């Protein structure tokens, strides 16, 4: 059995060991004049692992990092997504976390669990805590099964679930051409005892004693030896249901309240939790795990009814959330899908459960470094070197505007072929009676294909696709208000008004229909996701608050009763 497990689980070790091609410790030279960028991510969004392996193993330390390197384009050349065949190589390291063998007893039991003796700090797929990523099939690089724990060297007993890798891209002549930092998340709260459900791990194993062939004395026991686990490539034993099925069906018998706290008991844990992306707690967005995965019981029973766990997960495009314009590649999951010149969806949007922008500042750091603001990688010049005239991914179109102040005027401009969604790297604007909004030359306006609809007398401003500004009752139809990875902009259904935008610090907040609610809770976040302030406004009418902080982008979230909207604001 151990030989079988070893062959299956370590099936990727031999191909991965071609990493010996890497120049290793050769002297690195100065960067080249050609511009490159590298973008990296964890392909799971979060990895869970046991901390103690003396009794049982659900998941080993096994974290995956993926990277794509792009040679920037120009007005005469398109960007090029680099491949391993070019001789370019990519290294990874985790500053402040150089070893794991003293932080967990995994290496003491790897031979018993997986049939292989591992050197300290070496993972099951042949990658250690630092090294060279292996070229993937095509235009990406991958480090499989990095054996990181949640404990940095400086705090070996205090967990930090969202550490950063340092990714470096080199040309074949060892020139360093690009660097980035990517979150490499890990949680050890998968412990069934610390969650408060079981009195001990032995209690769990004792419940299996009546199973034929099961011997509680043969510890440690690897759950996937019997229960198949597609994530680990383990086939399990014939006739034994998959691990995901039995766990969810069993726990669904008594944990099925429909809240994310049900899921957090196991993965990634009640303290670490999982929600940190743009979907969580956003207006009209996903608010709990069950919105995508269904109830605890449903997850288990769907496997019993034929779903292949891990290989068939919820689809972004197959749901009412996004539709075909934002669907994955046919037959592929989000994390495996590509588009727009061979880029993974995760290259621009982030990895599953960490879709950008997220509430964790470290998730946003990479794109802030690349384009100057958090959220989806959406500044075309990052890769192209300039803003192309044509439509981009998902039909996005971008135009430049001149220095212009939109006055309090009631003009009509119905010659727009697309509708305004966001402006100036993510800001939106509206013009009310007596108000105005200023655009600065160089700001860009992003569009999605759409139609215009009469919303009545309330005047909204928009910019046409040729850069003309208008103040008109026409505005995008409800349902087309957002761009993935960005905050919701004003729409026909907007209830709140926030102005001026840009602002020098003073913000006016009211109900946009003239009927201000009695109470508004205002939350302001920095672009990295850190909450700056919370204010509670009471009484009808306009409210004035000060946006305290340096110049830059901020998110303003307004809540009143069941209504909630988020706006992106520029402070000059």
Summarize the structure in words:
This protein has 572 residues and is of the alpha+beta class. It contains eleven helices and 30 strands. Mean pLDDT is 74; it is low at 1-31 and 399-493. Strands 1, 4, 5, 8 and 9 form a five-stranded antiparallel sheet that branches. Among the domains are: 2-192, Immunoglobulin-like, CATH 2.60.40; 389-491, no CATH class; 495-572, Immunoglobulin-like. α5 (243-252) packs across α8. The longest helix has 11 residues, at 361-371.
Please report the distance between the alpha carbons of the first and last residues: 65 Å
Radius of gyration from CA coordinates: 26 Å
What is the CATH topology assignment of the domain at 2-192?
A: Immunoglobulin-like
Helix content: 10-25%
The biggest beta sheet is recorded as: 5 strands, antiparallel
Low-confidence stretches: 1-31, 399-493
Number-wise, the strands total 30
Text of the CATH class of the domain at 2-192: Mainly Beta
Query: Class by helix and strand content?
Result: alpha+beta
Average pLDDT taken over every residue? 74
Name the CATH architecture of the domain at 2-192: Sandwich
């Amino acid at each position: 059995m151990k030989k079988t497990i070893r062959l299956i689980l370590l099936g990727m070790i031999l191909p991965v060991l071609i990493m010996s091609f890497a120049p290793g410790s050769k002297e690195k030279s100065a960067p080249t004049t050609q511009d490159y960028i590298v973008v990296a991510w964890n392909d799971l969004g979060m990895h869970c692992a046991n901390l103690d392996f003396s009794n049982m193993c659900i998941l080993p330390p096994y974290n995956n990092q993926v990277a794509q390197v792009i040679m920037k384009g120009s007005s005469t050349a398109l960007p090029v997504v680099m491949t391993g065949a070019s001789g370019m190589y990519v290294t990874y390291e985790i500053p402040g976390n150089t070893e794991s063998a003293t932080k967990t007893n995994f290496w003491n039991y790897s031979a018993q669990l997986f049939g292989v003796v591992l050197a300290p700090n070496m993972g099951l797929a042949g990658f250690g805590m630092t090294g060279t990523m292996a070229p993937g099939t095509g235009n990406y690089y991958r480090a499989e099964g990095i054996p990181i724990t949640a404990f940095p060297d400086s705090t070996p007993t205090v967990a930090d679930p969202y550490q950063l890798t340092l990714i470096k891209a080199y040309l074949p002549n060892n020139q360093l051409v690009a660097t980035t930092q990517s979150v490499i998340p890990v949680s050890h709260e998968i412990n069934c005892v610390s969650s408060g459900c079981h009195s001990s791990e032995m209690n769990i194993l004792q419940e299996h004693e009546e199973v034929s062939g099961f011997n509680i004395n043969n510890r440690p026991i690897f759950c996937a030896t019997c229960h198949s686990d597609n994530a680990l490539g383990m086939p399990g034993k014939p006739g034994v249901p998959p691990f995901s099925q039995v766990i969810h069906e069993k726990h669904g018998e008594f944990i099925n309240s429909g809240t994310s706290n049900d899921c957090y008991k196991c993965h990634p844990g009640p303290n670490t939790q999982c929600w940190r992306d743009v979907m969580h707690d956003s207006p009209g967005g996903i608010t709990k795990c069950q919105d995508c995965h269904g109830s605890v019981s449903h997850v288990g029973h769907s496997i019993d009814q034929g779903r292949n766990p891990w290989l068939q997960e919820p689809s972004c495009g197959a749901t009412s959330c996004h539709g075909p314009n934002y669907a994955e590649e046919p037959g592929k999951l989000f994390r495996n899908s590509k588009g727009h010149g061979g880029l993974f969806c995760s290259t621009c949007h982030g990895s599953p459960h960490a879709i950008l922008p997220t509430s964790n500042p470290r998730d946003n750091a990479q794109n802030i470094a690349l384009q100057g603001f958090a959220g989806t990688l959406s500044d075309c010049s990052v890769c192209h070197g300039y803003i192309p005239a044509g439509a981009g991914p998902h039909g996005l179109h971008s135009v430049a505007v001149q220095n212009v102040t939109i006055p309090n005027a009631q003009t009509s401009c119905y010659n727009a072929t697309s509708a305004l969604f966001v402006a100036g790297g993510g800001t939106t604007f509206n013009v009310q009676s007596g108000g105005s909004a200023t655009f600065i030359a160089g700001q860009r306006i992003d569009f999605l294909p759409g139609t215009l609809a009469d919303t009545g007398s309330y005047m909204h401003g928009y910019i046409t696709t040729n850069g003309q500004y208008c103040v008109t009752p026409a505005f995008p139809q409800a349902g087309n208000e957002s761009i993935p990875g960005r905050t919701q902009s004003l729409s026909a259904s907007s209830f709140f008004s926030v102005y001026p935008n840009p602002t020098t610090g003073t913000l006016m907040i009211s109900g946009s229909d003239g009927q201000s609610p009695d109470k508004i809770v205002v939350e302001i976040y920095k672009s990295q996701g850190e909450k700056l302030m919370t204010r509670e406004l009471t009484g009808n009418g306009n409210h004035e608050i000060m946006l305290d902080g340096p110049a830059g982008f901020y998110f303003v979230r307004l809540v009143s009763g069941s209504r909630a909207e988020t706006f992106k604001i520029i402070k000059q």
